[in-house]
């Protein structure tokens, strides 16, 4: 009986010792980890500060680089160069349309101007606030800006450099716009062949950018100028002291901060400052301040305490079974893995949102797409998974392009190129794409991944520079380019070609009788007939006014004459809107060995003139 009692007491004693040992291990482990977590908290804050500040800088750079790229595209655009060389009313109207298109495609722009070298506004396009309405300022309302600071400072810049104004509030007619509109102006000098013509200047709405910068879950975000005035403050009433005189500066907001603190980048605990002078290039020395948000710090500390409590409990239980030597490395391994997993998810989400990607298996079925692709195409992910890439196919792209693409990647070679894709709503967008085969360990192809960049804006500008706006045919600049190519091809390899010069008979009567809108409708209907009748190898364009040109590759004068008669008869039988019937006259000419670039056009024009003289509605080919 005594022995049993002794064993029982020893058993209870061992249990008590195990409980004390486990409790001691759990307590020590909890204290050590609590102190370590405080160090990790500071490290985590430092990492979040670095990440968030980098994201803000990239956001600013992307926002402003987009404007610089727009101004650069204007300077190199042939339509704008034509206007500089020949500032006719027609060329000015063309550039006005170009400016309007750029403002329409860029939500950040609300004013775009060309000011000549004397300071006179020549073109001024504006977009109404909170509206998509874009208008051109009338000529009588254009002003002399030679005395304005932005003109005087821009013309001091070297060619190729951009001038930035201060980040300020928009003022119209010396009155502060309400509600306030944060604005920055970016301008560049215009030189062509070494001659200074003036400046282009864009007014950029910064409200969206500042809103994106301010939207941060971890930190209170401030922007200050070189005098300590708030440009951006979490409390909107405290922003823009330099313009609203609300009395709030960084020095009375943070009593621990003085001018030397700003210079030393040392603002005290929980506050971090970053220079943005390389992004806002306006000598305003704008600086970014990130202040750890109280709720953010509280959340981290609460998570820390919760973690310590759970860890202590787990260690206590495990120590009774197998001891803390096993639990500790497992816990440490778990924390490392969990941190790595969250970091990976963070970057995967960023890539998914901003990088256009598609993965296709060997059966040409889509297996994954990024959110960025869904955004540009208008499809949801579940609408694309399992489908083939032909869902994006543009019917105007030749099948040979897709055939060559698949042949190349199927052989294990990377394909690079541009593709015009069709969105869900029927619109089109351009992608600059790289397609890579994915291999397994035995180097067998398992799938294909396409990584793309949105190239739509560039293609829109290219199309505007070579297309007649009314008829959507090639314009004269593009026709000259194709004609010169055909002529050089003939000189190099004796490949013959012919041209058709087409004029609408008595077109002036249409404008005089029915008005220019009906006349424009006739031009569009003629253009549609030409597009419908032309062959794949033909080049069709508007030569000017009511004249059109067709360049017929590998076609002699006999074939071209038959083709021209076919077009003439089609037009003669066509019932036009309002005017009923119209006819056309056509002059045909085939290239010969004595021709120059201009003589073949002269011969076609002479034949067209003869067709008119002989009664119209006929084809002359001599």
3D architecture notes:
The chain has 19 helices and 23 strands. The chain has 622 residues and is α+β, with helices and mostly antiparallel strands. It has five domains: 2-67 and 295-351, no CATH class; 77-208, PAS domain (Beta-Lactamase, 2-Layer Sandwich), CATH 3.30.450.20; 219-292, PAS domain (Beta-Lactamase), CATH 3.30.450.20; 355-454, 2-Layer Sandwich (Beta-Lactamase); 467-621, Reverse transcriptase/Diguanylate cyclase domain (Alpha-Beta Plaits, 2-Layer Sandwich), CATH 3.30.70. The termini are far apart. Strands 1, 2, 3, 4, 5, 8 and 9 form a seven-stranded antiparallel sheet that branches. A five-stranded antiparallel sheet has the order 15-14-18-17-16, sandwiched between helices. The protein has a five-stranded mixed sheet with strand order 20-21-19-22-23, with helices on both faces.
User: Structurally, how many domains make up the residues?
Assistant: 5
Helix content: 40-55%
CATH class (first level) name of the largest domain: Alpha Beta
The main sheet comes to: 7 strands, antiparallel
User: Treating each run of at least 4 consecutive H or I residues as one helix, how many helices?
Assistant: 19
Radius of gyration: 35 Å
DSSP E strands, number = 23
Average residue-wise pLDDT: 83
By secondary-structure content and strand pairing, the structural class works out as alpha+beta
The share of residues in extended strands comes to 15-25%
Distance between the termini: 136 Å
* Silhouette: globular
Fourth-level CATH superfamily of the largest domain: Reverse transcriptase/Diguanylate cyclase domain
